[in-house]
Structure formats: structure tokens, C-alpha cells
Amino acid sequence: MNANDIIQAEKQYIVQTYIRPEVVFTHGQGAYLYDSEGKQYLDFTSGIAVTALGHSDAGWVTAVSQQAAQLTHVSNLYHTAPHVELAQSLVEHSFADKAFFCNSGAEANEAAIKFARKWKRLKIKDSRLENANHQSSIINLVAFSGGFHGRTVGALSVTWKEKYRAPFAPLMPGVTFAEYNNLEAAQAAIDDMTCAVIVEPVQGEGGIHPAAPEFLQGLRALCDEHGALLIFDEVQCGLGRTGHLWAHEAYGVFPDIMTLAKPLAGGLPIGATLVTDKVAAAMKPGDHGSTFAAGPLVCTAANHVFSRVSRPDFLAQVQENGAYLKHRLERLEAAQITAVRGSGLLVGVEMTESVKPLIAAARDKGLLVINAGTNVLRLAPPLIITKEQIDTAVHILEVCLKD
Questions:
Q1: Spatial separation of the C-alpha atoms in residues 305 and 308, rounded to whole Å
Q2: pLDDT along the chain (403 residues), means of 10
Q3: Span 71-309: which CATH code?
Q4: What CATH architecture does domain 3-56+312-402 belong to?
């Protein structure tokens, strides 16, 4: 099929949950994508912060190809070495004691919700709270304005935007939303009936908003005070994206549960829910599972990605280039820009108007960028991006803003 045939067939055969531009990509290399007409695009989306090592990374391709020729899938009924090696690496480089694997960020958050609910029920078993009047209230969760945690029912229930939630109501009960970065609002929402608080250290879909240090520190204290678990959703901001291996490292605050996904396997589907032993102890065989999760192929890919993004020199380069990207954007003379914010190579440019026309104009000139809400331009290039490529991207944006 040619490009037009593919575009028309997509409309005919695929459920229309996305509005895709009329471009068909055929291959990629490093920070570049190429369409069916041979046009080159500088990719500042990374497949929504996924392809951390860029496209067709040689080491990743070799690791995946060799594993595909050896063993792809046996299910979670059996042991494989890549599965255990990945869990060991994640645990030894984080606060966690155990890992649970799934296939996406939404699934990682679903697991976190289940773990937290069961942990809380066990915690209060035989206590003064266990009676018929409290059976619904003991599973309360607190989430925040601007937060995005996924589109499955549980993850959607703790996602802020009403537009996403309303068509699928009623959702999971027992969720309270508080204002992000407002500790007083959080304090009013968290009580002894709260099983968990879920928050992004740096909000992605909500507009690229980093948490204030005192906010995360306060949430940790409130969770400890009320016997609740603190869940950090690092699906987008984790695994090197901010220039730290984990976004929360910059705050000196540690969670009880952390969820991961997007970049972990470099483009193959995987999610992970990292937990402390106290949380892991609440879960028993049969409590949760996944047929496809943590297969040897995807874990081999993830082991390669993690071995790269966890290196101190790699992270230092992300910090340096992230600071350079913000500096270049801040120097743009454009009346439409009201703020530039973010951490590392997750940067948002807030505008006075919708960024949709700017995204289309940039694409026409060979730059791929996406939005984070109506009026925030999101830049999330591969973590291997260079300063020269950053200069090219900013120049294209400058030209588009002047047109």
C-alpha cells in the first residue's frame, strides 16, 4: 500500500481514538524519523518519551535480535533469566525491594492501586476501623489536579481531566482530588482512611509541572502520619528523563511504590511497579498477574536500555543538554511564549494560545513536537540528543513562531 492507501485504510479498519497527521513513517535512525516519501524529521517526541536511546540503536537491535532468535515468550508461569536480571537491576538502583512487571504505564498504576488497597485492608484488619460502616472508605485514594495516570478504569479514576473520565462513569469510587503543589489542600484530603496518595514528581500530560520540594516532602510526612502509601508515578518522568535516574531523587523524598513504563524497553511494551517489602508482603500468589508481562524478549530490551540510562555520565549529559534546551527556548523572542519549564529533557513551553497550529507548522518543516494540554508545547527528545540538534529544533520553532 502507498501512503494514501494506508491513511484511508486506517480510517476504515481502526477504531478512531486518535487523530493522526497524514504522514506514514517507515524507519528511524537516532533522533530522526523518515516518512514514506523519504522526508526526514527531527524527533522531539520520542514516541511520547519512550525511545530514550533514539531509533534503531545498534546495541538495542543486537540484544533484541539475539534474544528473539533464542526465546520470546513462556508466560509468567516459568522462570527466565532476563526477567530476574531486570528486577535485580531496578531494585538495586532504587528505594525498592521488589518489582512487579506488566505491559504499560496504566497497568503499572492499576497494580499500584491494587497493592495499596490490599495493604491498607491488611493493616487495619481487626482494628477499630474494621466494621461494615468503613468497608468502602478504607480504600480511599488521593490524587491531584493536572495528574494523568492512564486510561484503564482504575488509572482513569485517579486522572484529573474530567473530559477523560466523564464518558466512562461510574468509575472506581473513593478518589479525592486535591490541588497539585498545594500542601494545605493535600492535608485536608488525606486522613486515616486514605490507603494511598498518587502523584507525578513532574507532571507530563498536565502541562510539564515539576512538584515543589516542600510539596513532596509534605506528602511523605502526611502519608507516614496517616498510615498511607506514597505512590510516585514516574511513567514519563522516570528512567533518566529529568537527568536523574528517578525524578524523585532531586527531592530527597522516597515513595513506597513507584510506577515505570515508557522508556524502559526502548519501544517494546513494558511496565513496572516497584515496591518496598512491606507492600510486597501484602500480595500473595494469584492476587495479580499478566500473561505477557516480563517476557524474555522485552526484558532483554529493558536490560539494555537500563544499563545505558543508569550510567552517571549518561545522566550528566541529559542534565547538561536539558539545561541547554531550556536556555535556548528562554531566549526565543516570541510574544506567544509565557513560560518555559521542566526538568532535564522533559520541557514545556506555555503559550498564550493553542499549540496545535505550531505543532503542524513544525512538522511541515521537519520537526516533531507534541502538546501537553491545549496551550503547552512538550519537548521530549531522545536522551541521546545533541546540542546541534537542539539548535536545529529551536531554530525551526523560532521560524514557525514568526510566520
A1: 5
A2: 94 96 97 98 98 98 98 97 98 98 98 97 69 58 98 98 96 96 98 96 97 98 97 98 98 98 98 98 96 98 98 98 98 95 98 97 98 97 98 98 90
A3: 3.40.640.10
A4: Alpha-Beta Complex (3.90)
